[in-house]
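Researcher: Here's my situation. A collaborator sent me these components and asked whether they could plausibly form a single complex. I don't have experimental data yet, so a predicted model of the whole assembly would be a useful starting point for our discussion.
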Amino acid sequence: MKILAIETSCDDTSVAIVEDGTYVLSSVVATQLEHSQYGGVVPEVAARAHIQNMIPVLDEALREAAVTWEDIDAIAVTKGPGLVGSLIVGVNTARTLALLHQKPLIAVHHTEGHVYANWLHKDDNNVPTFPLVCLTVSGGHTNLLYMKGHLEYKIIGETHDDAAGEAYDKVAKLLGLGYPGGPLISFLSQKGDKHKYAFPLVDLTAAPKRGVDGFMVEAEESLDFSYSGLKSAVIRKVRELEKQGNTLGEAEKADIAASFQYTANEILARNLVRAVTKHKPTSILLSGGVAANVSLREQIKSKLGTQNSKFFYPEPTCCTDNAAMIAAAAYFHAQISDYTNPEDLTPDPNYKLA
Ligand code: KG4
Ligand code: ZN
């Protein structure tokens, strides 16, 4: 089954054609460089750029896959969450194509796309098994999911404030590195000392409370995240260093970047391991843009120890936003004939996964 998928939830215009949820026949991503000068995504600029990019990206995806519309079995699109102006472009393109070419239409949640990136480029012998725990970390989301089976999502941990990727982007902006910040922090960290600054390993586990029998009871370890405190600690440290010696030099920036990256990743790895201990999954998944971070993968592997063999993460190009992951998730919707009427499909910027 060949699915053509469209993803426009943020600042990447992407179209992909994927066979049976795993074989990527084409995956085209037009990254909008317009935003780097602003240090973040400007919604209005993103929506306009999607309109300009959509037709060329669509044409290229069809050409690269060497298929015609007759070969396409279904069309999939990200319904949400995301920037409404960006989502509208993708959703309306998908609706029009579905009506024009008489193809079934599948609506996909952006996060389930990230999860199913772990099924891309895999055969039946090496796909994740259920139950699984997945840590999804991107610019907009940081959550832990428990899945009993395909498309069955239970959120077991989430962020109370910033997403981890957002923290990466904000720290990069603070250090004057540019946008998106994650890859730039990661690159700079290679030259820094990750133990130079002890930033807080924020833990939302509640303090012990007195039980009905009068004895103190330890709270269950929290699987939730908070990144605003870590971000503020980095800001305070930068201001303190600036007071001492005017502007930060390259070496100081590298130490800040490395210490921040190490701490942000330790928080993610710690909560993932807590979730694994509690829920005993048969597979452990990492997904989302921050999953491209090599140090994060290593920190998780080291904490998982012998559980390592069940640890899955997508290829770097499949971690950040792309339409192939949307096609992979859509394939499993198609298996249960979960189609949507093109006349009724509307984008939902606050679309809930579970
Ligand atoms: O999944 P994604 O492309 O978009 C959202 O759904 O948000 O994730 C983008 C996020 C950005 O915050 C970016 O800085 C971060 O992923 N990111 C990274 C790396 N590559 C991308 N963060 C850390 N290390 C990386 N190598
Ligand atoms: Zn994403």
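Model: Some features of this prediction you could bring to your collaborator: The chain is about 40% helix and 20% strand. The chain has a mean pLDDT of 95.
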